[in-house]
Design a protein that fits this description.
Number of helices: 3
Distance between the termini: 64 Å
Radius of gyration: 27 Å
Oligomer: single chain
Structural class: mainly alpha
Order of helices and strands: HHH
Length: 79
């Protein structure tokens, strides 16, 4: 039941009794904070990866490649 309180804040609406409602509300707030922190960490990881790609810090394979300078429409016929 605690997982449904965390994942769906409206689940505890049918809980009776003030202690149970307080406990459900506390679990719900904890779930909201937990989900927000997971989302924040995920967004931060994606931003770091995008920044490293943007700055050119990714691994470059330097072997068995051909570099073609001056690409035109006729290049495919030459290849």
């Amino acid at each position: 039941i605690a997982w449904t309180f965390m994942a769906d804040p409206g689940t505890h609406a049918s809980v009776a009794g003030p202690v149970n409602r307080l406990l459900g509300s506390v679990i719900t707030m904890g779930g909201i904070l937990f989900m927000a922190s997971i989302l924040g960490v995920t967004v931060d990881m994606v931003r770091e990866k995008m920044d490293s790609l943007r700055q050119g810090k990714s691994k470059i394979v330097e072997h068995n490649h051909t570099l073609i300078l001056g690409w035109t429409e006729k290049t495919m016929h030459i290849i």
